[in-house]
């Protein structure tokens, strides 16, 4: 007799002893239970990581801009389009809450009492403190540091010692991102604590940001524990508004947050940039020529001021973020019933809100040929130039300070890779400086093409909340001075 049969036999006997009514009841409960289990298993094991998350586009075509679906037993209400972005990202503090959703994942990484492990008002103050190391003056010193790290990486890593070869883009960009960010934001001492084996740890952390970890956060799933807590320098002389000096552990945790908050986003973006350049070698050549024209044939070491002279170099980042925004799903808990403007619906507190600004960034209503990666579209006269209709232009221009500096009040733009509202990214300028400096230096060093010489590009892995290229993602490189 099989083990399964042994286990099931007593249950069968008990079932047969029940009356018909009870049998129907038990069967019904068993059916519901089985349906839920199968649905959960289907979402866990059979979801296609190549599909856009939650089939946003397909669902939108079927149900419109606002709809609810069930994810692992939780009701998720999606609000799409520019109005949906605004509704969620500019939701009032009494209505929406980010920390309840994110804390289970970020607190083990950043540490306690910072970011989502504290009330929102405290986070707003902490964002202001963290922005202290993200000033123009600081960026001026960061460009030579980032340049040095990028060039050292491609000079000293054994893979790149030949004249040509294959680059594992995800690995290289994870490493370059942590080296450039740690050296510029936290100094050489901290940078020297990182070595290449860290890339694997970061991958594990990425996988901690999957939907299942939000919901089953108590389960021992990969990525929910981190040992990556480098010691951090002090935030000098800062005090909270209530006069309390920032405790040492909060300073350390804020420094970790500053490093970690951008790691996945920046390395995913730089990976996509490298893949797009390999897909479009002619654009890589244009980038090189742009530098020769703007900075001179001898290409002196890059300075912060040079970045503004390289519009195509800037557009590469903008266009890549349009098609490959690393944070594809932004979530909020609903704290009080929220009426959806222009409808009879009220979103109850049992639902979780989900915003996907990446969808409006690839909406043909705003971006002609939306699926084409065309950095030239950001030039005024391009046929693909965004036809961004600012529905509430005046409101958009209005600025508001949530406690960490002025930001646009509205979220009416279809292009919001850095979010909007009180949770808007504070790392936008740093990320731009980091990515533009990286691209400018890479273009000076290499020529890229696809490994097969073709024009294809890998799909997107949406398994984690950070989208990134599906692996393997390799490109062919050749040293420019050898070409
Ligand atoms: C390409 C790079 C980046 C992208 C696309 C990006 C995107 C975003 C987005 C969409 C949000 C809003 C999340 C939400 O509303 O729930 C956000 C928040 C944030 N980002 Fe970034 N980010 C990037 C790089 C960085 C960097 C380099 C740093 C730090 C130096 C950073 C620090 C933060 C912080 C502290 C928040 C605030 C979270 C909050 O207030 O809830 N980000 N980012």
Q: Span between N and C termini? A: 71 Å
Helix share of residues? 40-55%
- Supply the helix-strand structural class: alpha+beta
Shape: globular
CATH superfamily (homologous) name: Cytochrome P450
Strand content: 5-15%
Strand order of the largest sheet: 1-2-8-5-3
Within the CATH hierarchy, at the fold level, what is the topology? Cytochrome p450
What's the number of extended β-strand segments?
14
Provide the domain count.
1
What's the average pLDDT? 84
Bound molecules: protoporphyrin IX containing FE
Q: Main β-sheet, in a few words?
A: 5 strands, mixed
What would you report as the Rg, rounded to the nearest angstrom?
25 Å
Protein name: Eburicol 14-alpha-demethylase
Cofactor: heme
Keywords: Heme, Iron, Membrane, Metal-binding, Monooxygenase, Oxidoreductase, Transmembrane, Transmembrane helix
Family: Belongs to the cytochrome P450 family.
What does this structure look like?
With 483 residues, the protein is an alpha+beta fold. The chain has one domain (77-479): Cytochrome p450 (Orthogonal Bundle), CATH 1.10.630.10. Helices cover 48% and strands 11% of the residues. It is built from 18 helices and 14 strands. It has helices spanning 3-17, 20-46, 56-63, 81-89, 99-110, 120-131, 136-156, 169-186, 188-191, 198-207, 211-215, 248-279, 281-295, 304-307, 311-323, 357-360, 393-397, 428-445; strands at residues 66-71, 74-79, 96-97, 164-168, 330-334, 338-339, 346-347, 352-355, 399-401, 406-408, 446-450, 460-461, 468-469, 474-479. A 5-stranded mixed sheet has the order 1-2-8-5-3. It has a 3-stranded antiparallel sheet with strand order 4-14-11. Strand 1 and strand 2 form a beta hairpin. Helix 7 (136-156) packs across helix 8, helix 8 (169-186) packs antiparallel against helix 12 and helix 15 packs across helix 18. The longest helix has 32 residues, at 248-279. The chain is globular. It starts with a helix and ends with a strand. The model is unreliable at 211-234 and 390-395 (pLDDT under 50). Protoporphyrin IX containing FE is lined by residues 98, 123, 127, 130, 258, 261-262, 265-266, 269, 321, 326-327, 330, 417-419, 423, 425-427, 430-431.
């Amino acid at each position: 007799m099989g083990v399964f049969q042994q286990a099931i036999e007593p249950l069968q006997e008990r079932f047969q002893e029940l009356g018909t009514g009870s049998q129907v009841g038990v069967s019904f409960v068993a059916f519901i239970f089985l349906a839920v289990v199968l649905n959960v298993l289907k979402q866990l094991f059979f979801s296609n990581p190549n599909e856009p998350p939650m089939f946003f586009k397909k669902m939108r075509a079927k149900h419109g801009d606002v709809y609810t679906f069930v994810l692992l037993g939780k009701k998720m209400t999606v609000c799409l389009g520019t109005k949906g972005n605004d509704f969620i990202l500019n939701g009032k503090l009494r209505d929406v809450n980010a920390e309840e959703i994110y804390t289970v994942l970020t607190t083990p990484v950043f540490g306690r009492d910072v970011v989502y492990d504290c009330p929102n008002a405290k986070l707003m103050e902490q964002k202001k403190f963290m922005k202290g190391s993200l000033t123009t003056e600081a960026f001026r010193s960061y460009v030579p540091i980032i340049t040095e790290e990028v060039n050292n990486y491609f000079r000293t890593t054994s893979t790149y010692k030949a004249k040509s070869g294959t680059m594992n883009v995800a690995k290289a960009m994870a490493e370059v991102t942590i080296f450039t960010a740690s050296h510029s934001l936290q100094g050489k001492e901290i940078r020297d604590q990182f070595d290449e084996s860290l890339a694997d740890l970061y991958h594990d952390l990425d996988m901690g940001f999957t939907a299942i970890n939000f919901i089953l956060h108590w389960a021992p799933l990969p990525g929910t524990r981190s040992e990556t807590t480098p010691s951090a320098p002090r935030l000098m002389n800062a005090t909270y508004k209530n006069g309390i000096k920032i405790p040492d552990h909060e300073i350390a945790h804020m420094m970790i947050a500053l490093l970690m908050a951008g790691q996945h986003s920046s390395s995913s973006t730089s990976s996509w940039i490298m893949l797009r350049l390999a897909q479009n070698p002619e654009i890589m050549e244009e980038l090189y020529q742009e530098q020769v024209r703007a900075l001179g044939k001898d290409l002196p070491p890059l300075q912060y001021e040079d970045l503004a002279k390289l519009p195509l170099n800037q557009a590469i980042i903008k266009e890549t973020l349009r098609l490959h925004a690393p944070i594809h799903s932004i979530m909020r808990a609903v704290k009080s019933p929220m009426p959806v403007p222009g409808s009879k619906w009220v979103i109850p507190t049992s639902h979780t809100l989900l915003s996907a600004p990446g969808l409006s960034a690839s909406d043909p209503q705003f971006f002609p040929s939306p699926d084409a990666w065309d950095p030239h579209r950001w030039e005024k006269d391009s046929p693909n130039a965004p036809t961004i209709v600012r529905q509430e232009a005046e409101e958009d221009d209005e600025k508001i300070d949530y406690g960490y500096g002025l930001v646009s009040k509205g979220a009416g733009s279809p292009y919001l890779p850095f979010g909007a509202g009180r949770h808007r990214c504070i790392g936008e300028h740093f990320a731009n400086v980091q990515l533009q400096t990286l691209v400018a230096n890479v273009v000076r060093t290499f020529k890229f093409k696809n490994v097969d010489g073709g024009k294809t590009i890998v799909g997107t892995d949406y398994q984690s909340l950070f989208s990134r290229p599906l692996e393997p993602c390799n490109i062919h490189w050749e040293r420019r001075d050898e070409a």
